[in-house]
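WARN  no MSA supplied for this record, continuing single-sequence
INFO  ligand: carboxymethyldethia coenzyme *A
INFO  echoing inputs
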Amino acid sequence: MASAVRFGSSAFRSSLAAPAFNARIAAFNGARCYSAKAQTLKERFAEQLPEKIEEIKKLRKDHGHKVIGEVTLDQVYGGARGIKSLVWEGSVLDSEEGIRFRGLTIPECQEALPKAPGGKEPLPEGLFWLLLTGEVPSEQQVRDLSAEWAARSDVPKFVEELIDRCPTSLHPMAQLSIAVNALEHESSFAKAYAKGINKKEYWGHTYEDSMDLIAKLPTIAARIYQNVYKDGKVVPVQKDKDYSFNFANQLGFGDNKAFVELMRLYLTIHTDHEGGNVSAHATHLVGSALSSPFLSLAAGLNGLAGPLHGLANQEVLNWLTKMKASVGNDLSDKAITDYLWTTLNAGQVVPGYGHAVLRKTDPRYMAQREFAQKHLPDDPMFKLVSQVYKIAPGVLTEHGKTKNPFPNVDAHSGVLLQHYGLTESSYYTVLFGVSRAIGVLPQLIIDRAVGAPIERPKSFSTEKWAQIVAKL
Ligand code: CMX
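INFO  complex generated
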């Protein structure tokens, strides 16, 4: 076990350059499958922890005094864009290449992470393991994680009743946030803290809460879906099935193998996008005050519900639907160009395009596009999305405002979902939220394990800033 190549390590990075990557992943996984003792995720993380704490201690001792950049006043007023000030272990976002999870690109994750029996897409259980440990789990470890999440999936009665009492006109993301906040009642961390615990025990309780929270999210999310759009009935979790199957099944799509595969891909690629995005940062920030994982994730979900962030997936489908109604069957370059200009001239953003960090097409968009090419190449909305992909970058470049004229993750997801009959766009961000929990909670566990401090950057009034810059 200890000899495993750590993904993201320099040894792994140099091995990526060699051509036989797939063979090495297979050998690596094979070796782990047959290793003497199958560890649980918690055991493996605990085993790694002393080394991680030492690594950080040494890094700070040797280099803690070094200046790592400069900050302009424009950055301060410009949403802190590009200011390097956060630690995020699970993923790093390169503006040209896109996201790498512990050093692995999305195609590499699709290749390396364990699949469901008969499935081709990676399981989000495996990504959770990878994000927390930096290692690709064995199939057995992923099966065990599926079983553990299924076993923890029961939702307290009072939380179900809270969801049931929400008016159907309350946005599903607000309902999700209410339910996740209410789970605080069950928090192992909050209870242990109230009793008084040693700091060294924080991460164990955070781990337990995070596992419970992730496990319960599909049943909560499905209840919201069934209440708002259907008959309010949610089928129970099947204890021998994977997380994505169960979620798809609870939404009413368990019989559709392609939809289940889509859910596996969707829940894997929406997890994590380094630490500075609103949902990840909000979860981390609130968590830094030692709020429980439930309260911390709820903060992240509230941020995800904003239209410039996760709600963009809802906005995209609504915008495409309006475009379809306007252009009809005319998908000519001119018709799409005109529609894009109508949006821009109305002072609105083109949803699903642009990004605060990325400067190329989002690989999460490409993964979904490849799924569509494989499973639904003739879908009329997919054809429209493809045509927008061809035209929008040119129009946005001509418009001259956005620094990135290419599509992000949200430009594609709705079109896949509507193809299978999940047409309720106001629900789409809830799916994103379930996935995001799997991405941001590993960092919260790591934060507690390494003793990350409360976050507290410095602010000044405009008057004070003026005085400061006048002296420079
Ligand atoms: N359409 C029109 N204008 C856009 C644009 C778009 N898709 N993207 C950016 N712009 C505009 C900005 O509104 C800004 O205009 P002002 O100077 O008038 O304020 C200007 O271009 C510069 O913005 P930027 O530096 O390129 O982008 P930001 O880092 O400020 O914002 C983002 C990034 C994603 C909020 C922005 O591109 C946007 O609003 N996109 C549409 C919404 C969207 O798809 N959000 C989802 C992002 C992914 C996610 O988090 O889920």
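The two ends are 54 Å apart (CA to CA).
INFO  checksum written, moving to next record
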